[in-house]
Every structure is written in structure tokens, then in C-alpha cells.
């Protein structure tokens, strides 16, 4: 069983829409949580960390529910440039990261 | 500043040949990670090093795979002999243990095709 599960999508949304991605993780002792973004045929890059209290970075909001072992990412006012694959990432202990398989987003004009 | 550097960017080889992938981490970073990405399995951690010492190689698929880090600025991932199922994108990433962030910085990847 994969430790980090995501809906692969694709999510096709029009510009300006709000879209939400969800992710679940299996290890209740996981310590840190992140969203990475990967453009087509490029390397993954950190989008934002996810904190227990929830956090916002511009149009992006990330939330963590430790009790349900659930992470979410909300994108408001979607732009064409938001089209990418969004990877849910969990750190159990140490410095190794567990990556979900990603959710594909396509924002259309 | 230069990011993580990987070479070659593309490699096409025949089954049975030896393949060597190379990585130069960001200067000063003390962790180095090797990943493999396929459509079926996503991004999988193969092995990681701390201060040039292998910490966890449990993700290395089999004995055909080996990785070394002879110094802080260079690492190799070798596949011998290669098989078609090894076709994937191989990423190297590095990170810095000091500070609150666990961010990993990825190289551009090596796209390997084994025919």
C-alpha cells in the first residue's frame, strides 16, 4: 500500500476557478507535510509546506488534519500557469520524503 | 547559484549494457537523494546519503543497482546490467540539514531508455 495517496485526476478547470486537491497518508507518526509542483518533463519543486494550523501563500491555501491523516491544497482564481502536477509529500522521520503519485491539473482558457 | 546538476540528460542504451548516472549536489548541502520516476509507480526513493555515507538503500530495486558518493560534490548511480524495465526518469536531489526546512532541491533528471 502506498504511504501517500492522491487522486490522480486530471482536474480540468477554467481560468478563474477554485480547485481543491486532497491527499491521505498512512503513518500517523508523520512529522512534516508539503506540496510540490512538477511541470511537464521537469523536476519537482517545493510549492509550500503545510502546517497544522493551516497556511496561505497568495492564491494557495494548504490545510492539515492530523486526526484524519488528510492534507489539502486549495487554489483560488486559477491561472493557465497553474497547470502542472501537484505532489503531496510526507516526511516520517529523518530527512527522507514520501511522495504521492501526484494530481494533474489543467487550467483552460 | 548553480542548482543540482545531473548528467547525462538523456541516455538510450541496449539491454545488458552498463549505465552510469551522475549528480553534483548544491554546494554545502549534506544530504543527497536518488529517485526514480515512472508513470506507474510515481517518484520512488532509491537511496540517500548524509555526509557522503549511505543512510538508507532499501529502495534500491536489486543488486543490479549501486550508488556511490566519493565526495561531497559528486555521486553516481550505476545500473549493471540494464533491463528495459529500468526505463524511467532518474532524479538526484540535495538538501541541507541545518535550519527548519526539509526542502529538497531536484536536478533536471536523466531520462533513461533501455531497449
Please characterize this protein's 3D structure:
- Chain A is mainly beta and 109 residues long.
- Helices cover 0% and strands 54% of the residues of chain A.
- Chain A contains no helices and eleven strands.
- In chain A, strands 2, 4, 5, 9, 10 and 11 form a six-stranded mixed sheet that branches. A five-stranded antiparallel sheet of chain A has the order 1-3-8-7-6, with no helix packed on it.
- Chain A is globular and about 40 Å long.
- With 115 residues, chain B is an all-beta fold.
- Chain B is built from no helices and eleven strands.
- In chain B, the strands form two sheets. In chain B, strands 2, 4, 5, 6, 9, 10 and 11 form a seven-stranded mixed sheet that branches. Chain B has a four-stranded antiparallel sheet with strand order 1-3-8-7, with no helix packed on it.
Question: Which helices and strands appear, and what pairs or packs with what?
Answer:
The complex is a heterodimer of chains A (109) and B (115).
Chain A: E1 4-6, E2 11-14, E3 19-25, E4 32-38, E5 44-50, E6 55-57, E7 60-65, E8 70-75, E9 84-91, E10 98-99, E11 103-108
Parallel strand pairs in A: 2-11
Antiparallel strand pairs in A: 1-3, 3-8, 4-5, 4-9, 6-7, 7-8, 9-10, 9-11
Chain B: E1 5-7, E2 10-13, E3 19-24, E4 31-38, E5 42-50, E6 53-56, E7 65-71, E8 74-79, E9 88-95, E10 105-106, E11 110-114
Parallel strand pairs in B: 2-11
Antiparallel strand pairs in B: 1-3, 3-8, 4-5, 4-9, 5-6, 7-8, 9-10, 9-11
Brief overview, please?
The complex is a heterodimer of chains A (109) and B (115). Chain A is an all-beta fold.
Amino acid at each position: 500500500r502506498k504511504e501517500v495517496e492522491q487522486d490522480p485526476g486530471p482536474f480540468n478547470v477554467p481560468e478563474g476557478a477554485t480547485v481543491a486537491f486532497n491527499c491521505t497518508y498512512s503513518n500517523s507518526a508523520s512529522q512534516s507535510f508539503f506540496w510540490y509542483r512538477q511541470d511537464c518533463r521537469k523536476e519537482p519543486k517545493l510549492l509550500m509546506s503545510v502546517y497544522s494550523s493551516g497556511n496561505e501563500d497568495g492564491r494557495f491555501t494548504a490545510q492539515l488534519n492530523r486526526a484524519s491523516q488528510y492534507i489539502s491544497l486549495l487554489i483560488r482564481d486559477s491561472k493557465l500557469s497553474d497547470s502542472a502536477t501537484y505532489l503531496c509529500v510526507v516526511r516520517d522521520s529523518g530527512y527522507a520524503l514520501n511522495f504521492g503519485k501526484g494530481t494533474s491539473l489543467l487550467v483552460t482558457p | 547559484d548553480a542548482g543540482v546538476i545531473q548528467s547525462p540528460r538523456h541516455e538510450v542504451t541496449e539491454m545488458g549494457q552498463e549505465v552510469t548516472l551522475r549528480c553534483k549536489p548544491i554546494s554545502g548541502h549534506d544530504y543527497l537523494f536518488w529517485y526514480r520516476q515512472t508513470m506507474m509507480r510515481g517518484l520512488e526513493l532509491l537511496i540517500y546519503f548524509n555526509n557522503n555515507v549511505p543512510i538508507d538503500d532499501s529502495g534500491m530495486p536489486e543488486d543490479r543497482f549501486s550508488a556511490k558518493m566519493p565526495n561531497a560534490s559528486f555521486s553516481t548511480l550505476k545500473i549493471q546490467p540494464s533491463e528495459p524495465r529500468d526505463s524511467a526518469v532518474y532524479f538526484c536531489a540535495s538538501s541541507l540539514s541545518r535550519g527548519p526546512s526539509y526542502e529538497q532541491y531536484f536536478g533536471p533528471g536523466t531520462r533513461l531508455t533501455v531497449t
